[in-house]
């Protein structure tokens, strides 16, 4: 369960502090997850309780991006800056 966040955290530069969105799942309250986020300087975000439209909007957006961009691709060597400026916007606009 921690391989993916640990791998992502290892790619961050000292000035990178993305916001991590959660749906209030068990990992969000797990002490190991909380300490990882705090140690990496990441901001945690979550949906308000009983707010399905908010959560479904986030899940829909990130689900589409994940399917379209991350599966069957190797992003090794692409900086966060390159990803944000070029790849993310191009892929998002094409959806």
UniProtKB/TrEMBL annotation:
<protein>
    <recommendedName>
        <fullName>Transposase</fullName>
    </recommendedName>
</protein>
<dbReference type="InterPro" id="IPR012337">
    <property type="entry name" value="RNaseH-like_sf"/>
</dbReference>
């Amino acid at each position: 369960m921690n391989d993916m966040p640990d791998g992502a955290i290892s790619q961050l530069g000292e000035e990178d502090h993305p916001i991590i969105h959660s749906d209030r799942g068990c990992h969000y309250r797990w002490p190991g997850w909380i300490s990882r986020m705090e140690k990496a300087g990441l901001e945690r975000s979550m949906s308000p309780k009983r707010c399905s439209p908010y959560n479904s909007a986030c899940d829909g957006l990130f689900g589409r991006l994940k399917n379209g961009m991350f599966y069957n691709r190797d992003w090794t060597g692409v900086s966060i800056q390159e990803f944000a400026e070029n790849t993310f916007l191009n892929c998002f606009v094409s959806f």
